[in-house]
Design goal:
Rossmann fold
């Protein structure tokens, strides 16, 4: 069964037009979409289930945690400093590439819904390079 692993801490794939815009092949098959919100849950899901058919990447993870801390009284400056320690979508993409190499698997299809253009470009560059190298072995 084809699965979409949606990595994003803020964008709910089941609302608005997120799936239609970034993974239209899953818009009618929402039961095959798995939403994870952080690096650790991304790793856990793949470790327990194997690679999905497709992955949707956000770059800047942890904004929801930072916003919650500000709401509870933490300064924005301190929450930004803490957020810097949170692994992002590029870290998840790096881990996935290593997983593919270690397990002799092709890099799955991917899409990037990040609002961070530099972060999106970094993920895209990594995964396109890995796809060229790994998927043609």
């Amino acid at each position: 069964m084809k699965k979409l692993l949606w990595l994003d801490d803020m964008r709910d794939p089941f609302t608005e037009t997120w799936l239609l815009s970034y993974a239209s092949d899953f818009d009618e098959n929402r039961e095959n979409v798995v939403w994870v919100k952080n690096y650790e849950d991304f790793i856990t899901w793949i470790t327990e289930n194997g690679l999905p058919y497709k992955v949707a990447f956000d770059h800047d993870l942890g904004q929801d945690v930072a916003d919650e801390k500000v709401d509870k009284g933490m300064s924005k400056r301190k929450s930004r400093m803490e957020k810097k320690g949170i692994k992002d979508g590029k870290d998840a993409a790096n881990w996935m590439v290593d997983y593919c190499l270690d397990n002799d698997q092709d890099v799955p299809l991917f899409t990037i819904q990040s609002a961070n253009p530099t972060g999106a470009d970094n993920i895209r560059g990594l995964l396109l390079g890995a796809t060229k190298y790994i998927n043609k072995r």
